[in-house]
Design a protein that fits this description.
Oligomer: single chain
Order of helices and strands: HHHHHHHHHEEEHHHHHHHHHHH
CATH topology of the largest domain: Neurolysin, domain 3
Strand content: under 5%
Shape: globular
Largest sheet: 3 strands, mixed
CATH class of the largest domain: Mainly Alpha
Distance between the termini: 66 Å
Helix content: 55-70%
CATH architecture of the largest domain: Orthogonal Bundle
Radius of gyration: 23 Å
Number of helices: 20
Length: 496
Amino acid sequence: MEEILKKFREKIKEKKMIEGALAVLQWDLETTAPKKGKDYLAEIVGYLSMKEYILTTSKEFEECVEFLSKNLDKLNEIERKEIEELKEDIEKMKKIPAQEYQAYSELVARTQGVWEEAKAENNYEKYKKNLAKIFEYTIKFANYHKKDEKNLYDVILQEYEKGMTSEKLDEFFSLLKSEIVPLLKKVKEAGNPDKKLLQKVDIEKQKQFNRFIGEYLGFDFDRGIGAESEHPFTMNITKNDVRLTTKYIENNPMSAVFSTIHETGHGIYEQQIGDNLQDTILGTGGSMGIHESQSRFYENIIGRDFHFWNHIYKRAQESFQFLKEVKLEDFYREINLVEPSLIRVEADELTYSLHIMVRYEIEKGIVDGTIDVDNLPKVWKEKMKEYLGVVPETDSEGVMQDVHWAAGLVGYFPSYALGSAYSAQIYNTMLKELNIVEILERGELDKIREWLGEKIHKYGKLKTTSEIIKEVTGEELNPKYYIEYLKEKYSKIYNI
């Protein structure tokens, strides 16, 4: 038994080394890699992905996992969870032919560069072919993995949120729509003040303030780093190497601020995963839904709170000189402005889920064959008009605004809406245990960070999202908390 466990740990270490190398390459591809060097880096990604594929599907590794699965009673809790996860991973990976796996890995690595160029040029035709191939592979792999799921999209959803189905999501989004749309109508009727925050601020000044915000929230820059990318993201190599990016816009400084707060939520989660999970496959965040609950919690529930800004507003005014002419009350009002917009990452809390619905319905449509990639720009515009009443003039601010599909993350988008709902439910419990107003007024953000660390972060993938939500809040996912939170907040702000 000891010999098998020793061999198992060696294989896991090797697997994690490959994953770490792939993560560094991915980071490089999306941040600092020269344009003409990206194709070769994509080949390296394909090569290393094959190394991981060969290791994971090798007879030696499979036999090792199989032996341990028959001796679960001799394993500790962490080892048992690892074996459970690995059995599933091996089964799934073995169903994908090796050459297809490598080709797909290279395609995804290459497409992100293509997407970036196409977006800059507003040239959907340049991107379309690669996008179609990514969806083709996604559908093909879903067919390989399909068991008793009702449809292929349900198979895809399992990659990001186990147990989630399109039926559950349809019900979830239907409820949100029925509650949010009437509230949105009332908000529109109430009207908005003039905008004061769309001011030109030097990018270097923005970077300094964004660094301060990350540190203030509790992100440890001795164990992390920030950079720029076309689309903000967070990547962890270990809990001691967590990387955040943001996108800076010279005449919209608050865009990067809230992007940074969002990614910092992801980053804090990864930095607080238990030390006992670091040499295992469980040393990362759980489902994408619980991960997005942390980023959405920090971005919206904390980051758009009056008391949060009350403590640091003078510091913000020092960085952004124009804020000296803006009262805190007016600033708070504008960062919570409700206005249907074209860009998801800049959307307000109230309309955000409508952006997700657009993407969710498109993904489902492509997977079930009712929507063609060729027609995506047209379909996108139609759905944006239907749900948000705005129509993009270009594909760059329309169908090409997100990196997710280019990165192969088909099925990821619903996680954002689920994350918002989880975050409100978690917050409802937090309010019973912590004096949030007092904490924010005093700038004691460590108390919130520690609470989340103890209740959620330390478990990594050891516990499922449904287990965590049930343990923290006392019940399964319940969207009513999210709806109540939105109604209470925006009724107060807009006096409706």
